[in-house]
Write a structure and sequence with these properties.
The structure holds 2 protein chains of 2 kinds.
Chain A lengths: L10 H30 L11 H31 L8
Helix pairs in contact in A: 1-2
Chain B lengths: L5 H34 L10 H38 L1
The chains are: A mainly alpha, B mainly alpha.
GO molecular function (chain B): metal ion binding
GO cellular component, one term (chain B): mitochondrial inner membrane
Subcellular location (chain B): Mitochondrion inner membrane
Amino acid sequence: MFGLGRPQPTSAEKIAAVENELKVVAEMHSRMVKICTLKCIDKTYREGDLSKGESVCLDRCASKFFETHQKISDQLQKETQARGGGGFGM
Amino acid sequence: MDGLTAAESRELDQRLQKRQVKEFMSVFGNLVDNCFTACVDDFTSKALSGRESGCISRCVLKSMSTQTRLGERFGELNAAMTAEMQRR
């Protein structure tokens, strides 16, 4: 206001920032559920309970999904830096 | 949370509640689509057969267990990832 410090984010900006962060996490969660269901769950539905094999598959799928997320994120960051911050046309 | 004032926090809560309703509708919609696709394949009758109906019930039960289990794993893994990112 009086030229002191950097401009403060408005209320709307602060709320949008938190909301956006939660949205990213929620989207990742729903993608993981969709993908791991496809990979692990037997589609004949002869049983209403998760089998031992399906449960183990879901746990491993979740773990690998996160590891893949991290791996690709690291790799993209590295590639982008190597190209002087202009990688992938972004 | 993230240095929000009480009023901002209330506003955020209201928005998140709206999102939750939307998210529930989308989970419900996906459940119908998945279980219909997996279980309903006989169109010689307009009513669900006993077999289809049983399949749908089991599909719903299994999908709910899947949601719960993956929800737990997601929480753990997300917490670990957040901690790792803050450590770096």
